[in-house]
Design goal:
- The protein is α/β, with parallel strands linked by helices.
- The protein has 2 domains: 226 residues, Alanine racemase (TIM Barrel); 111 residues, no CATH class.
- The strands form 3 sheets. Strands 1, 12, 13, 14, 15, 16, 17 and 18 form an 8-stranded mixed β-sheet that branches.
- The chain binds pyridoxal-5'-phosphate.
- The site of pyridoxal-5'-phosphate has 14 residues, from strand 9 and helix 9.
- Pyridoxal-5'-phosphate binds next to strand 9 and helix 9.
Length: 359
């Protein structure tokens, strides 16, 4: 095996199949899907897979990612997910067709920038229905939409919300109805059509699949359920998707039999923490060439169920391989499945080679 390590293996055909399955579910409800690319830094192979899988839009939280998506010739509309920074409005109106917003001041800046660039920018007004991340408080929504409705080169196309990110609040028929009522109130106050109600992210799929999603909710922004095939409320496999869409491969650089508890008096580790050690006696241990600069150490699961991840520092991952089912020796390449956080780190790390795998 001569392929370099550490590497992130990407399986675009599997991601495409996941996208098709999730998009079909949303389309059956009459909802459009913005497929979210931020967790894989908008890798071109994945962007193409999402497009082929039926995405109606592509969404990302970073302007740089949207820029690289347009550079590969994307024709679908692009949506910026993170609330715009006032200093970035010129780039945003250039790179994004849609953005999610919560303040009139920023919308004024977007309007000016759009006028200057000679484009019309589309904005969705985010409302906080309980998760306490982004969005105006519900009783301020009408005022914000009214203020924004007068701005030139800016089209307020609807409202949206985001749940299950900061507060972990689960989407329910109640909080979704609240969003619909807020849209109706804004519509009445301004006369704008406000056709889009963007109900949320992957966390909305369980309610949708159970038939409890109000029919007025006609847009979702879906990342993890497609890219990792997970129900994000409990991280169980999402029906109709596969979970082996990415693999992380690292290589063993040292293998030794050692005790499982450190010897000597102990202070802080390299990251200022104190660790607990389970005494399993003398064990066969391996060090891999991957660390916290490339992954979230707690967020990777070895493909071999006999291997235990003990911990890691910036550049070293320590494994217990005593009960490995596979052959483990110096130079062996060890496969892991990443969590969302580990995938986010892996795609961002320039030290991780990204390899597209067919099949
Ligand atoms: C990241 C993000 C999403 C997608 O979330 P997933 O849980 O990956 O589906 C949707 N909306 C916003 C505003 C986001 O930041």
């Amino acid at each position: 095996m001569y392929i370099r390590t550490p590497r992130l293996e990407i399986f675009p055909q599997r991601i495409e199949a996941n996208a098709r399955s999730v998009v079909q579910l949303c389309h059956a409800h009459g909802a459009q899907v913005a497929c979210v690319t931020k967790v894989m830094s908008a890798h071109p192979s994945v962007v193409h897979a999402l497009e082929a899988g039926g995405a109606d839009m592509i969404a990302d939280s970073r302007i740089l990612n949207l820029q690289s998506i347009s550079n590969i010739g994307m024709t679908l509309p692009l949506m910026l997910l993170r609330i715009p920074a006032p200093s970035a409005v010129a780039d945003i109106v250039r790179c994004a067709d849609y953005s999610l917003n919560s303040s009139v001041e920023t919308l004024e800046l977007l309007s000016e920038a759009a006028e200057f660039a000679g484009v019309t920018h589309r904005a969705i007004i985010m409302v906080d229905v309980g998760d306490l991340r982004e969005g105006v408080w519900p009783d301020k929504a009408v005022e914000v939409v009214r203020g924004a409705s007068k701005l030139p080169n800016l089209e307020i196309v609807g409202v949206g919300c985001n749940l299950a990110c900061y507060g972990g609040v689960i989407p329910t028929a109640e909080n979704m109805h609240m969003l619909v009522e807020i849209r109706d109130a804004c519509r009445k106050a301004t006369g704008l059509p406000l056709d889009i109600i963007s109900g949320g992210n992957s966390a909305n799929l369980p309610l949708l699949a159970a038939g409890g999603m109000p029919k007025e909710i006609n847009h979702f922004r879906i990342g993890e359920a497609i890219t990792l095939g997970r129900n994000v409320l409990d991280r169980s496999p999402w029906p109709g998707t596969r979970q082996d869409t990415f693999r992380i491969v690292a290589e063993i650089v040292e293998i030794e039999c050692k005790p499982s508890v450190p010897i000597g008096s102990r202070g802080q580790d390299a990251f200022g923490g104190y660790s607990d050690f389970v005494d399993r006696g003398i064990r066969k241990r391996a060090i891999c060439n991957i660390g916290r600069q490339d992954v979230v150490v707690d967020g990777i699961t070895p493909e071999d169920p006999g291997i235990i991840v003990l911990g890691g520092s910036s550049d070293h991952l320590v494994l217990d391989v005593e009960e490995a089912h596979t052959e483990v020796e110096l130079g062996s390449q060890v496969v892991f499945y990443p969590s969302y956080g580990a995938l986010l780190a892996a795609t961002t790390s320039p030290y991780m080679q990204k390899v597209v795998v067919k099949g």
